Amino acid sequence: MRMSASGIELIQSFEGFRPRAARLPGGGWLIGYGHTATARAGLQITPRDAVLILRHHDLPPIEALIAEQVLTPLSQNEFDALVSFAFNIGAEAFAASEVVSALNAGDRARAADAMWAWRLANVSGELRVVDALARRRAAEIAMFLEHPAGRAAIPGALVRPLARQGHDDEDHDAGARSVVIGPRPTTDSAPGPVLPPENSTQAAARAVSERIARILGEAPRQTPAPPLPPVAPGDGPTPEEITDAVKALVGDEPPSTLPARAKGPPEGIERRRTPRPAGDTGAPQEDAPLLPPLPLAEGVVVDDLEIVEIDESDLERAIQENGELDTASIRNLGAWLPYATLSGLGFVGMIAGLERFLSQGSRPLMHQSDVYAGPVLALGGGFLFLIASYYLYRALTRQD
Asked: Which pTM value belongs to this model?
């Protein structure tokens, strides 16, 4: 495996870039992104060269070390975190650390915990926790524990963290604590009216009533549904149960009590109306004559995808009324006009060549090639005239 771009960005963010070589307390030199092998006094480097040295010189030995020491398969996030960790503490310290032994034992959680121990440094002869190392270990552990498919869900009500007793480097079993999740306690309130249990038909009727009330924006009827005979339990309401539910919802009112739908023309058809006289308020007048009702408009269905058939008689009548378009003459004109033009050009070229050839003796020659100009022009013009004339004759005598 090789270091990914996110892992390299993690190392760069904590190592920092040094364009000039800096002296270490131990006597060595440091330049670029933590490079020490070839650093020396007075050396300068660009950011691009520092990235190349980090990627192709400093990290390949660490990558080979992890591939040799760690025997368990690693994801890309785990590999990047281990490379950053080993690059910071050194190859020998990484090989002898508890992180490697925990990984080879298959305990990734213990390996991440062992990485947290490497946040101490010798400051003025005293071992202290360095904030920069603590932040780097936290970032490396977070990358190490990040699952490739995303963050793992750990409900806080099921897994409660416990404080570890003793030194940070010692493990003590604090014991497991069972957590029982029960229903949320209800507050004391006045008991409501106890309703009798309803069967599936009554429940279906109540659901339909509430839904219609929500659609119409009305309050549902508070009157209880009439008692219905019990129905044998099943997987769901049968068609008979649904029918009974609708009947229970409608009630015993006859269909004649329902408001009649106003008659009118079909949708999309506008009916002509007789203009009202002045002062007419629309109320019926006793002396006014009753007009006969207008017939109902017939609905016409128009199919946009239907193939339209054209009547030949209608087409002939339209040609006679508008005049017939002479398309044959237009087609013939486009057929013989180019050949006539070429024939004319060839005839003009032939005449100009003959005239030039016959007048060579009466005028001086400027160049030696002028001797052949007349014959070549006459022969080319004559050839073009003959070919164009032939095709012009064919175009004029062709019949459609």
From this structure: 0.42
